Amino acid sequence: MAEPALDTTAPKPKALPVSPAALTWLLLGLATFVLAHTSRDLSKALDARWLVKVPRELRISMKTDISAFMSWLVEDAHFGLFSFTDLTRGIAWLLEQPYDLAKAVLVSGFVQGLGNEAVQWLPPLSWIAVVFVVAAIGHYAKSIGLAVFVGLCFLYLAVFGQWDSAMVTLASILIAVPLGVGGGLLLGIGGYRWRWFDRVLTPVLDLMQTVPIFAYLVPILFLFGFGPVSALVATVIYAMPPMVRITTLALRGVPSEIREFGTMVGCTGRQMTWRVLVPSAMPGLMVGVNQVIMLSLNMVIIASMIGAGGLGYDVLTSLRRLDIGGGLEAGVAIVVLAIALDRLSQAFVNRPPPEHGETAPSFAKRHPYTLATLAVILATGLLGLVLPVLQSYPATAQITTGAFWENLVQTINVNYFDQLEAVKTFMVLNLLVPVKRFLVGVPWPWFILLVTLAGWQLGRWKLALLCFLLSGFILVNGLWTDAMETIYLCGVSVLIAAVMGIPLGVVAAQNQKAGRFIGGFIDTLQTLPSFVYLIPVVMLFRVGDFSAMIAVVLYALAPAVRYTAHGIRSIDPQLIEAGTVSGCTRWQLLWRIKLPLALPEIMLGINQTIMLALSMLVITALVGTRDLGQEVYIALTKADTGRGIVAGVSVAFIAIIADRLIAAGARRARARLGLAAEGGR
Amino acid sequence: MRTHLKMLLGAGLGLAVGLGAAGGALAEVESKDPIKLTLHDWTGQLITTKLMGEVLKKAGYNVEYVQADYIAQFAGLKTGDLHVAMEIWETTGREAMDEATATGKVENLGETGMQAIEEWWYPAYMKEKCPGLPDWQALNDCAEAFSTPETAPNGRYLGGPVTWGGFDDERAEALELDYEVVHAGTDAALFAELESAYQRKAPILLWVYAPHWAPIKYEGEWVEFPKYTAECYGDPAWGDNPDMAYDCGKPRGPIWKVSWAGVKDKWPGAYAAIKAFKVSNEEMGAMVAAVDLDGKDLDGVVADWIAKNEATWSGWIK
C-alpha cells in the first residue's frame, strides 16, 4: 500500500486529481462492482457457496446466551439479602414517587383511596394556573416577550384539546430531564476528573446513543415493571449521553486562569468542582440541558408504547384509526411543547447572572412575580371548584383542524397518485433496486476486507482492527444480509438527504431570512414524531422501502443543513475577502473557497445524518422494511431480549464504524486545509 | 399554601362523604387491592377490557388499567405485576400464551366468545374486475388486475407485519399463486394502504382481520381458500399440493382471556366473573364501529353497553 496521498500539500486545482491511494480505491471500487454482480455465478463456478452465504460454522449463539443471562438476572440473581429484581423494583418505586407527584399536580389531582372509591381531595393545577406559571418562568428567564410566547404555546395546547395528554407528557419530562441532567453531570464530571473513567465511558455512551431504543425496552420492562417508570428509565438512557459529553467538554473548556485562581485560594477538590468549575462552565452545561429536553421529547412516542401515555399515546391511537388529523394535532402539540421548553432553556443559558445586592428588601418586594403566580394558582384553584371553566378548559371551546388534513391527504391521493407513483417507480427502479442488488451482492469477505482497509488508511491499525472486529461481530451473529439491507436503505437516504441538505445549508448561511425559515422548518421536522408523517406517506407511496426512505430523509435532513450552514458561516472572512479581491465571481467563491473550506464541517454533518438515519430504522420497520430495524422490532414484539440486543448492537456497530471512519477523514481534511483541530467550538 | 391546602382538603372530604353514601350499596369483596387489567393499542381490546373492568367495578372490586405490550405483557402476568389480559388471539398470541401457561404462573380463563377471522380480503369493487372471486382459484386469472408496477405481471398481496406469522409466503407458493407477498410493518400501515386504495377505487388485496373496524367501514369479502385443518399445516401430502403444507386458508379461532395464576385465590369472585365474560363478534363489531368510525367516546360506548345489558353482566358477578 502506498503512502496515503491525502497527506500531501494543498490540492492543486489543475493537477490530475489521481494520487496512488485514490487510484487504488478506484480500482478496488471497480473490482467490488464487478464482484457484486458476478458473485452468485462465481460462487457456483468455484463451488464456494460461502462467498454469498455466511457458513453456519462461523455463527455463534450470542442471542440465546444473552436471553439466558437476562432470565437469570430477572429470576435468580441474588445479593444475599435481596434479589436483583428487588433492587431494580426498589429503584422503580423511588422514581415513581416524584412522577406520581408531578402527575398529581398537573393532571390527576391528589387522590385518596383506590379504584372506584378514589376521591380527589385536591384538584390538579388549573390550565390557567399552568399557563401563568410558565409565563412567569419565561419572564424570569428573559423578558415579557418570552413570557407571552411560552404562555401562548401552552394556551395552544388547551385550545386544541391536547391539555390532559400534554400535561401527562410534561409530567414525565419534568422527571426525566432532571434525572438525565443530574446523572449526565455526575458522569461528565467523572470523565473530566479521571482519564480512565472517560475512556471507559466513551464507548458506553456511543452504544447508548446508537443502539435503537426498541432493543433494550424488553429488558427494561422485565426489570422495572410495567408502566410509566420503565418509560422514564428508557427516556433517561436515551437522552443522557449528550449531557455527559457536553459536561466533560465544558469543564475542559474552563479557562486555566480560573482553575489556577481556585487553586490559589486553596479550594478542596470538591469546592473546586462545585464552586469553581461547574459555575464557570454553566453556559456550556445549559446546552446539554437543552439537548436532554429535546431528546426526551423525541422519546415520547416510543415511551407511550410501554405505558407512558400522554401525547405519544394519542399519536399512536389516532394513526391506528387512520385519524390523520388527530395524529397530526397531537404531534404538533409535542412540537409546541418542545419549542416552549427549548426557548425557556435557551433563555436560561443566556440569562445575565443575578446581581448581588447588599440589602435584602422584604420577601414580597424581592419576589413580586412569585407571589402573583401563587395568587393565580390559589385563585383559579378555589374558583375552579365553583366554575369548572377555570379548572379545565371547556370542551366546547376547543378547535380541531383534523378534517382539513384528512381531506388534504385524500385530495392528493385521489388526484395526484399516478404522478407520485411515476416518480416513485422511477426512483425505485433506477436508484433503490440497483444499490440494493449491489450491496447484497458483494461477497462478505470482500466487504470486510474493504472496511478494514479503509480503517487502516484513515487511522492505521487501531481503526483497522476496530472495523474488522465490529463488522465481524455482525457476521458471526448471522445478521449479514440484514446489515447490508440496512446500509442500503441508510446509504440511499443519506445520499438524498445530503443532496437536499447541503444546498439548503448553503442558502441558509448566505441569506439570513432564508436561514431563519429553513431553521424553523428542519427543527419542526425533527421534533414532529415521524409516525405522524409515516402514515400519510404510506397512503401515497404504499408499504415498502420507498416510504421508509422518505421518512428517513425527512428526519435525517437537519444535521446536513445545520452543519453546512455552520461550516460556511465560520469561514475566516479574510479568506473570502481574499477571494473577492482576486476577482472571484460569487459562483467561484462558493465552489473554490467556501465549500472546500467548509468540507470538514459538512463531513461531520453527513456523519450526524448517518447517525439519525440509523436511529430512524426502527421506526421505518413499522412500514415493512426488512433490515436490522425490523429484526429489532420483531424481537420487541416477541419479547426476545437476546435477539433484540444483538440486532441493536449491530446497528450501533454500523454507526460506530461510519462515525470513526468519517471523523478520521474529517480530521485529515482539516489538517490538509490547515484548519484548527476540532473540539474548540 | 397551607391554608389553601386545608380548605381544599375540607372540600374534598365533604365530597368523599357524598360519594361514599352513593356507592355504599356495594357487596363485600375479597380484597380491595386493585385488579390490574392490561390495555393494548387496538380499539376492540380497549372495549373488551373496559367492559370487564366496569363490570368488576359494579361488583365492588377496585380496578386499574395498565398500558402494556401485547406479547411483552406475559412477563408481567407471570410475576403478578399485571393480573388480567382480556384478548389473546388464537391466531397471533397462541405461542406466547402456551409458553406462559406452561410455567404455571399464568392461567387461561377460556374464550371471550369472539372468533378471530384472518384472511386475504379484497374490496367489493374488485369483484367487477375479477368475477370469479371469492373462490381462490380466480386469483391467478386476476393477478394482472391486482398488480402494481413493481410486481407486474404478478399480483401484489399485502400481508400483515412479519411478527403476525400467518404463513402467507408459504401459502402463495403452495397454492402456486402468481402473487408477490409484501409485508406491512404495522396494522396502521396496512389499513393506510387500504384507505388509500379505497379512496381511488384502486385494486388491493390484503390481510384483514375481524373483529376490526375495517371490514365494517369498507365493503368487501374474504377470499375462500380450502378450509383450514391441522393436517393442512402439518402434513404436506394433504390438499391440492402434494409436496407442500399450507395449501389452505388460515385457521379461525377463539380469542382467549388469561390471568395471573394468583387471581383465583386473591379475588375468587372476580375470577369467576372473568371466566363468565362473553360477547359476540357482532356486539363487539358494533361497538368498535361506534368508536372508530362514528368518533364516539370509548368510555361512553362502554357505559352504554353496561346500561343496556344489565341482565347479561349481572349473571357474571352473582
Task: Please tell me about this protein's structure.
The complex is a heterodimer of chains A (681) and B (318). Chain A contains 29 helices and two strands. Chain A is mainly alpha-helical and 681 residues long. Chain A has a domain at 405-673: MetI-like (MetI-like fold), CATH 1.10.3720. The longest helix of chain A is centred in the middle third of the chain and has 40 residues, at 402-441. The two termini of chain A are 36 Å apart. Chain B is α/β, with parallel strands linked by helices. Chain B has two domains: 30-114 and 254-316, D-Maltodextrin-Binding Protein, domain 2 (3-Layer(aba) Sandwich); 116-234, 3-Layer(aba) Sandwich (D-Maltodextrin-Binding Protein, domain 2), CATH 3.40.190.100. In chain B, helix 2 (43-58) packs across helix 12 (281-292). The longest helix of chain B has 21 residues, at 2-22. Classes of the chains: A mainly alpha (681), B alpha/beta (318).
Can you give the mean pLDDT of chain B?
A: 83
For this structure, the CATH topology of the domain at 405-673 in chain A is: MetI-like fold
Query: Looking at the structure, what is the overall shape of chain B?
Result: globular
> How many helix segments of chain B?
14
What is the top-level CATH class of the largest domain in chain B?
Alpha Beta
Largest β-sheet summary of chain A: 2 strands, antiparallel
Q: Quick one: overall form of chain A?
A: globular
The tally of beta strands of chain A, per DSSP, is 2
Gyration radius of chain B (Cα, Å) is 24 Å
Could you name the ranges of chain A where pLDDT drops below 50 across 5 or more consecutive residues?
1-15, 677-681
β-strand percent of chain B reads 15-25%
Strand order of the largest sheet of chain A: 1-2
- The helix/strand series of chain B, from N terminus to C terminus, equals HEHEHEHEHEHEHEHEHEHHHHH
Q: What's the CATH H-level homologous superfamily of the largest domain in chain B?
A: Periplasmic binding protein-like II
Which bin fits the share of residues in helices of chain B?
Answer: 40-55%
* Oligomer status: heterodimer
**Computed Rg of chain A:** 27 Å
Number of extended strands of chain B = 9
CATH topology heading of the largest domain in chain B: D-Maltodextrin-Binding Protein, domain 2
Q: Largest interface here, residues on each chain?
A: A-B, 67 and 66 residues
pLDDT < 50 runs, ≥5 residues of chain B: 1-26
